[in-house]
Design goal:
Chain lengths: 261, 328
Amino acid sequence: MIRFDGVVVRYPRAARAAVDGVSFEAPRGSITAIAGPNGSGKSTLVRALVGRVPVSAGTITVDGDDARRLDRRELARRIAVVSQREEPAFPLAVRDYIALGRHPHAHLWSSVDRAGASAVERAIAEAEVQPFVDRTTDELSGGEWQRVRIARALAQDARALVLDEPTTYLDIAHEMAAFELLDALARRDQAILVVSHQLNLVARFAHRVVLLHQGTVAAAGTPSEVMRGDVLERVYDWPLVVTRDPAVGAPALLPLRGRRR
Amino acid sequence: MTASIGRVGLWALLGVAVLLAALLGLGIGPVGLTPVEVWNALAGRGDTTAVSIMRDIRAPRVVLAALVGAALAMSGAALQGTMRNPLAEPYLLGVSGGAAVGAVIAVASRVPFGLVPVGAFGGAVTAVALVLGIARVGAGRPDPRVLLMAGVVVGAFANAVIMVALASSPPDAIRNALWWMMGSVSAATWAQVGWLAAYAIVSAGALIFYAPEIDVLALGDEAAAGLGVDVDRAGRRAYILASLLAAATVAAAGLVGFVGLVVPHLVRGRAGRRHRSVIVAAGLAGAALLIAADLVARTLRAPSELPLGAVTALAGVPFFLIQLRRYR
């Protein structure tokens, strides 16, 4: 379980804190979604989690341990992260790239152990990237690369998976497949924390939604509790209506034509 | 992966290339020797002149060229991965400028010529410390882009210092200093080979050991942090190891350009793409190429010698241009 408790992150020379007292939990066995407009602090939360930005107040705990006190490799064995952007400086063979997910488990001197090799194969199967494992990372489309990155995170064999905008480059089928995969992982008692702009998908897959606005939590709860027209209109500053998805009954967001109020 | 003979096959091939280059380097010269004569002379048999040419002149020279080439190429391969920049090379972080300042100051202050390498090494290490220090002050941590700029700035400053020192030196001192800066392994001794080998084995061994971290660093800071790597510490370690390796070669052979930039690109992709295999293959290829370059340097216009750094650049540029075409 990942738990944010009153977390404040302040970038140097910034007028206001990027994240200002955010608290929520991402429990095991469910999908927790972080949503919110651009610049609301979503990615900063992910960076704070892996220690790339200093937390000036509050704590982040992983399975009850303070993330900042955990050894980095231990943290990486507990949480796998797919960050928003990533570009290898030099192309790698896709299978080698996925095998880098074993880095926190392997000793520097040993090559991938037997458990590692089977974890890599399992990740390749689960993320459905078999068709291009023999290519290099510069020979992939945007969508293929995104799936390969998810495969690398799966190979990391962590109990929690954090994804920052995982479906940005994916078409409808791969986007759905990615969320179905997250759902299956959650059913296997993983904690899934996903940052996403796709509110309609979030409404159908996430168990809980944390809606951020200017670094604070504007609303949190089940998708039906959070996705209310008045709340979303205020946070996104755009006219919209929330209806019911006719097929599955989940809340569905429909932005209206017009302009900022 | 490109259709290839595999990583181990390529290592073997490069190993053969090193041996072949060494055999040519040992056999060719004012006194030509067949491979059999080379072998006999190395073993101390046969003509005493041949034995002494082999043991005192050519063998240390060939081994020194191999060590310098290997060290520069490995240093370049590691820096390119760590800095995520295909233009990174061993001299980038102030090594060349610092070494040149150290050498010029040593020459200008008329210390015995044997102490010039000490001055060069001291200058290189000082400059690297300065560059890492500036980058840390500027960014709070050594960001590759800030490092790059710090390296350029320190290099420019070093150039200015060199010009001032040379402008106020007698002509013979200038000539000595310039000759040294053009790179050469002509004054190789076993003592030199010995300490460079000891130094290179330790630093290169450490680079090879930490190569998996370089793989992860090459993905970018955020991805590396997510994989449990202390980005700042691992990066700093790679910078220091690679720069010290280059600094040692500078002390032994002056400035030999282009090897550290070009050789990693020649082997990357062919020798696999993980940095452990890239670094090992770059070391072997660098050794073979620098032995060959030194052979060209001393035979093309014999009995006078061309500067080794000029030969490597003249041969390296066409290679590099071919490589650039493959990129785009």
